[in-house]
Every structure is written in structure tokens, then in C-alpha cells.
Design brief:
The chain has about 160 residues and is α+β, with helices and mostly antiparallel strands. The protein has a single domain, classed as Jelly Rolls (Sandwich). The strands form 2 sheets. Strands 1-8-3-6 form a 4-stranded antiparallel β-sheet. The protein has a 4-stranded antiparallel β-sheet with strand order 2-7-4-5. The longest helix has about 35 residues.
Length: about 160
């Protein structure tokens, strides 16, 4: 794996050479074609992915409605964080919209790294927390926008 490429990704930026070596041991490069499904909503949460090149779309299917595109993940972004958090299932689905290069890590391997190398683990988990918080904020804004466009206020439904 190219150190400069890895260091350019926000999740790894500023890590020491030793920390980057630890990351390289567990983050494996993988390539996917456009249209490839990385994971389905409700499937076992096994991997966390970091987008290097390309784009991944994250979608959510509520029980009572159509699929909603939640986010378009660009290079440097992270998808599949349910696996990193130790969740049993993915809460959304993800697929590649273009040819996409990713770094993939098994959630259990990342959690093990955090136990064995706590200084590195703390940095990576803090950065993941930032990504998760940003995604949740943007998702909240999207859902509110969709609700405003598509739903009639309850008081207008009374006859």
C-alpha cells in the first residue's frame, strides 16, 4: 500500500510510520466495479470500508416506504461503520456507483488493533466518531427535508 496515498486519507492523516504499518496489516485494498453491492441493509456487519477512488452510495429502506439515498461517499469517506462498532447487522446498504477502490478492514480486526495498540486505536476511533457524527447530521437534515416535501401536517388531516 502506498504510504502517501494512505496518509492523504483523513482517517490515517498524521499517523506515525509505525502506526501506518499497523494499519496496512489490517486494511486491505480492494477494487469494485460500478453497481457492485458492498453490503445490504440487515446483512451481517463484517467490514468497514474507506473510499480511496470512486463513489459509494449509502441507502436506507424504511419498513413503510421506498429506498432513500442517505449519502454519497467520496474519496476519504468511510462506509460500513456498523462493523467497526461491533453491531451485528448493517443498518443501511451500500453500493459502488463507479469503479471504486476501497480499503477494507474486518471490524473485529480493527477492534483488536484498538486493544493491542491503544494509542493508534484512540486516534482512529476518534476520527471514525467524527465521520459518524457528520453523517448522522447530514442524514437528519435529509430526512427532515424529505418529510417537509412529502408529508402533510397532521392538523391539516383532521376533518
Amino acid at each position: 500500500m502506498d504510504h502517501d496515498l494512505i496518509d492523504s486519507l483523513s482517517l490515517f492523516r498524521g499517523l506515525t510510520p509505525e502506526q501506518l504499518v499497523e494499519m496496512e496489516k489490517i486494511f486491505l485494498p480492494c477494487d469494485y466495479y460500478a453497481g457492485t453491492t458492498l453490503f445490504e441493509q440487515g446483512s451481517p456487519a463484517e467490514y468497514l470500508f474507506v473510499v480511496v477512488v470512486g463513489e459509494v452510495v449509502v441507502n436506507f429502506k424504511p419498513d413503510d416506504g421506498p429506498v432513500i439515498v442517505v449519502s454519497h461517499i467520496q474519496p476519504g469517506g468511510v462506509v460500513g461503520w456498523s462493523a467497526a462498532l461491533g453491531s451485528r447487522l448493517y443498518t443501511s446498504g451500500a453500493s459502488c456507483t463507479t469503479y471504486t477502490q476501497l480499503l477494507r478492514v474486518r471490524g473485529s480486526d480493527l477492534r483488536q488493533l484498538c486493544l493491542q495498540h491503544s494509542d493508534t486505536g484512540v486516534l482512529v476511533l476518534e476520527r471514525l466518531a467524527t465521520v459518524i457524527a457528520e453523517r448522522l447530521n447530514s442524514t437528519h437534515a435529509l430526512v427532515m427535508s424529505l418529510l417537509k416535501m412529502g408529508l402533510t401536517p397532521i392538523e391539516n388531516l383532521e376533518t
